[in-house]
Design a protein that fits this description.
Distance between the termini: 47 Å
CATH class: Alpha Beta
CATH superfamily: Aldolase class I
Number of helices: 4
Strand order of the largest sheet: 3-1-2-4-5-6-7
Number of domains: 1
CATH architecture: Alpha-Beta Barrel
Number of strands: 9
CATH topology: TIM Barrel
Strand content: 25-35%
Mean pLDDT: 87
Low-confidence stretches: 188-192
Largest sheet: 7 strands, mixed
Radius of gyration: 15 Å
Order of helices and strands: EEEHEHEHHEEEE
């Protein structure tokens, strides 16, 4: 049985990004990851200590308010699957009221996600899954995966490999308060 109001522990979000999936996307970085892949460039997202706590409905409302400014949402981390109840509640809320696409980054493989709590239900809401642990010795210098062992899985017919051709590898996002976020799979190579 799931709680009525799942609380998400988020690291950050960006209302519009071009470096986290096809088209303009709302990006959510989940806080907390027990996988702790050596060489991960998002180590600040590993701690499971509360960072930014938001109800899944509030997060869904933030995303829905973007309207037609975005094509979809990208969920990354940390490790989103370690908050499977909240992730599922968020995806279900978005599915009921918006036709946004979903890109999910996970350090877990597709096979592992399928046996995790709520894994199959989550996968039913995902269009593109980037799956597998980051392996520093297989790190790539370009593309949408961090290391060559990671899989790109199309779980719906919404996208094909051609849709990934124009996916920016990295970007700088400057918010209204002047805070800078470096985003994208190749963000660590972006010189500031």
């Amino acid at each position: 049985m799931r709680p009525k109001m799942a609380i998400l522990n988020l690291h950050n979000w960006a209302p519009i990004s071009k470096a986290n999936g096809p088209g303009d996307r709302f990006v959510l970085w989940f806080q907390g990851c027990s996988l702790k892949c050596p060489g991960c460039f998002n180590v600040q997202t590993h701690s499971t200590a509360p960072h930014i706590l938001k109800a899944h409905d509030d997060v869904a409302d933030m995303i829905r308010r973007m309207g037609d400014k975005i094509e979809g949402v990208t969920i990354t981390g940390g490790e989103p699957m370690e908050q499977s109840v909240g992730l599922l509640e968020l995806l279900e809320a978005l599915h009921k009221s918006a036709s946004l696409s979903v890109v999910l980054y996970s350090g877990y493989t597709y096979e592992e996600i399928r046996i995790l709590p709520h894994g199959p239900e989550i996968l039913n809401h995902v269009d593109i899954l980037i799956a597998g642990r980051f392996r520093r010795y297989l790190a790539t210098l370009k593309g949408i995966v961090g290391s060559s062992n990671q899989e790109i899985l199309f779980l719906s017919t919404r996208y094909t490999l051609l849709d990934l051709a124009d996916w920016s590898e990295a970007e700088l996002i400057i918010d209204k308060k002047g805070r800078i976020t470096v985003s994208g799979v190749q963000a660590p190579t972006l010189a500031i």
